[in-house]
Amino acid sequence: MFKNISKEKLNELKEQGIDWAFGNGFTMIKRPTEEEVKKDIVTITHVPFSLYPSAMNKKLFEEAVNLSQDYNILVHNVSKDFDFLQNTLKDVQDDFTQKLLEIHRQVNKEGIKQKKSLGVFRSDYMLHDSDKTQEPRIYQVELNTISSSLAVLSTKIFELHKHLIGRNDLNKEGYNLENHPDNKSSYEIVEGLATAHQLYNKADSVVMMIIQDGEKNIFDQKGLEWILWDKYKIKLIRRTLKEINERAVVNNSDFTLSIDGYEISVSYYRSGYTPNDYPSEVEWSGRLLVERSSSIKCPTIAHHLVGVKKIQQVLAKPGVLEKFITNKESFDRLKRSFTGLYSLSKEDIDQEVVKKAIANPNLYVMKPQREGGGNNIYNEDVAKELQSMTPDQLSSYILMDKIVSTSFKTHVVRDRQLLEIDALYELGIYSVFISDESDNSKDQVVVNKNAGILLRTKTSHSNEVGVAAGFGLLDSPILY
Ligand code: ADP
Ligand code: MG
Ligand code: MG
User: Fold this and answer.
1) Which is the catalytic residue, given 174, 340, 372, 470?
2) 309 neighbors 369 (Cβ within 8 angstroms)
3) 467 marked as binding residue
4) Span(s) in the chain for CATH 3.30.1490.50
5) Which residue from 54, 55, 69, 64 is spatially nearest to 137, judged by alpha carbons?
6) Residue 287 assigned to a binding site
7) Of 196, 245, 366, 480, which is the most buried if we count CB atoms within 10 A?
């Protein structure tokens, strides 16, 4: 695309884009050098972005959007099956997953103190068009049930692209804004937080964002805080798990959670999804405190566990999805979005697939029970690890068919530099789900909706697309 655009014009777009980014908070904190740490210097940079939207098939885009409600129901139904979660994950040889399972057991034994829950999920998809025997399709990469990030920055890249297209008459170059979807992901997610807060229904209570120390993606988080205040007049405070352990209390009789004089309506996790967030027992005990309280959790420990990759693999096994989804259309849509997923657990390792993967490692990805990017094993390493890991080590991984799409050329801006790259993208679909299980005779679903989109693009030779992890950049789709 952009055949008619001169180098000069591209540079002009770049300058406009960078100014817009800094002026509108499309920014993040740069990882400091040692020297900067010593001098206490904080550097802010623009979020890496594509200069114009990337073309996407409208039917496949809509297919992904339309899966939001199906996945919400799936997550919720699985989360209610205590035994399924415990039994499926009991043999995953991974301390982190086992700790989460322990909390799940403990809070269920004591009795769940809050029957309402908030889910802010993001299901991620890649285009698979390398198989010439079938039409291009989308497959799910993974489902994030905790700390689904980038919604604020994603809303901004859509605004930036709309601005650049309009301002520079790019509609004449085939970039018709009618084919550029709106994306209100930041507002949708804040609406979810606000609705949950209102359901908690206590004057003077506040939302608590549970954060990492030294968060680099701060403006993405702050954006939610500001909308929550501006639009709903709800306050949001930020605390780490360590601070929660030190200063929060759960009331003995009504189980309300308070910290520093604030009662917490909603505990919204933007940390706690990786072992790095629990350097000691202190953080685990902070997590347990929150889980035992009557604050509305986003996510509950059960919703968190449903997002574990082992669960994704087991749901793809014949006969399992049926247990959780009875609606035929919904079942078919979900099933269609699964690519090949295989167990590497001691109990049911699929030796045939392992042989195939050793012979053709480029067709597979090995994935541990981790979040946040940069943890998977690719290419020759797949063959190497499959042959050298012990059965116990393998049990903490799953194996997945690699989703492969054809690359396209695009222009991107990273660290103020204009680059032309061969690119691939990954489409994320946010969804909000609120349930209330206090009365079993009533419908438990309070809110079940799509909550906007995220498009991340990466160079085709990079394995991953994580923006915070430094691999990817933000983009938006133009539909055809
Ligand atoms: P995380 O929870 O760490 O984000 P993901 O499952 O999203 O884990 O994997 C990280 C990245 O690895 C993805 O964004 C994608 O770029 C790549 N990836 C993961 N699974 C596949 C797959 N089956 N095929 C191709 N790439 C994949
Ligand atoms: Mg993830
Ligand atoms: Mg991911």
Assistant:
1) 372
2) yes
3) yes
4) 341-402
5) 64
6) no
7) 196
